[in-house]
Amino acid sequence: MPKIAVLISGGGSNLQSVIDNIKNRDLDCSIEYVIADRECHGIERAENEGIKTVLLDRKKYKNSLSEKIGEILEENVDYIVLAGFLSILEPEFVKKWDRKIINIHPSLLPKYGGAGMYGIKIHEAVIKNKEKESGCTVHYVDTGIDTGEIIIQEKVAVSPDDTPETLQEKVLEKEHIILTKAIKKVFTD
């Protein structure tokens, strides 16, 4: 059974989705670690499930964050899932884990990806640009920012009355579905 680590920076709803899909046997893997780069609700979710959690404050570890993550995960996991993880991993780390790290992003990449494009900022940009559709993408992590090979995408319609918050909710609902699909696909690739 594959072993994964989930890296988070926020509320952990995508983490919870993975946990729930493991529990209902829709996903055949184990979460060995949840690593957060700041205090967040996702840590509490993991602890409530008895999952090993590690807080590596990005302000403290700065450029050595990837190295610290590597020390913890080396030989303990097969894959890394970035689920709302906001820190950028160092190129050496990414190369070492080539095609073993995936990320979920709340836009239809390549649109609205890259430095500074995260969270509500993406949905604000989508609405400002009067896009007719948005969505989410799971992709392999490479040494760029949101530039890795796309594994799966899911679209949502942008309604004329959508706000950044309502669009965020619609996209997040799809994220919870496609993250599990993408993890399964990575296991079989």
Automatic annotation (TrEMBL):
Its EC number is 2.1.2.2. GO terms for cellular component: cytosol. Pathway: Purine metabolism; IMP biosynthesis via de novo pathway; N(2)-formyl-N(1)-(5-phospho-D-ribosyl)glycinamide from N(1)-(5-phospho-D-ribosyl)glycinamide (10-formyl THF route): step 1/1. It catalyses: N(1)-(5-phospho-beta-D-ribosyl)glycinamide + (6R)-10-formyltetrahydrofolate = N(2)-formyl-N(1)-(5-phospho-beta-D-ribosyl)glycinamide + (6S)-5,6,7,8-tetrahydrofolate + H(+). Residues 3-183 form the Formyl transferase N-terminal domain. The record marks D146 as: Raises pKa of active site His. GO terms for molecular function: phosphoribosylglycinamide formyltransferase activity. It is an enzyme of class 2 (transferase). Belongs to the GART family. This is Phosphoribosylglycinamide formyltransferase. It comes from Sebaldella termitidis (strain ATCC 33386 / NCTC 11300).
